[in-house]
Design a protein that fits this description.
By secondary structure, the protein is α+β, with helices and mostly antiparallel strands. The chain is 14% helix and 30% strand.
């Protein structure tokens, strides 16, 4: 997954107060990320929490198949949220290889603190699942 543009519209509440996980609407995807409140376009939904990996460690984890939560940062470093509690990592990609009528409603970006986050690309209503694109490179490797 690649990151893009900065955002500055954050929700003034703890993520645990408005986000939750439940079975995704995408078959075979496991849990997905859902919102308990309306989220507006350009608001930061969730911030990724994880480890910044060395090239050696990233390659080792990828070779072991433990790279499903990798994010490629603009500086070429790899960020991994697999082993850290984090709501953002539960957002699935509605435009992945699964046949689905669903559409992505968010994107991966950077907030004003340069934290990797998920940003709404449209209004997302309470109870909706949050979806964001992982990028072609991710699906080439994981399909």
């Amino acid at each position: 997954m690649k990151t893009s543009a900065h955002t500055s519209n954050s929700i003034e509440a703890l993520e645990s107060e408005y986000l939750y996980t439940d079975l995704s609407q995408i078959a075979g995807s496991g849990n997905g990320l859902f919102t308990a409140i309306d989220i507006f376009k350009d608001e930061t939904i969730a911030v990724f929490v994880g480890e910044l990996l060395s090239v050696v460690e990233a390659k080792k984890r990828a070779d072991e198949g433990n790279d499903r939560y990798f994010i490629s940062l603009e500086n070429g470093r790899i960020f991994d949220s697999m082993h850290t509690p984090c709501f953002a990592k539960f957002a699935n990609d509605a435009q992945g290889p699964s046949v689905t009528h669903l559409k992505n409603n968010a994107r991966i970006g950077l907030d004003d603190n340069n934290d990797v986050c998920i940003v709404a690309t449209r209004k997302i209503k309470a109870g909706e699942e949050v979806f964001c694109g992982y990028g072609k490179r991710y699906w080439q490797k994981h399909s």
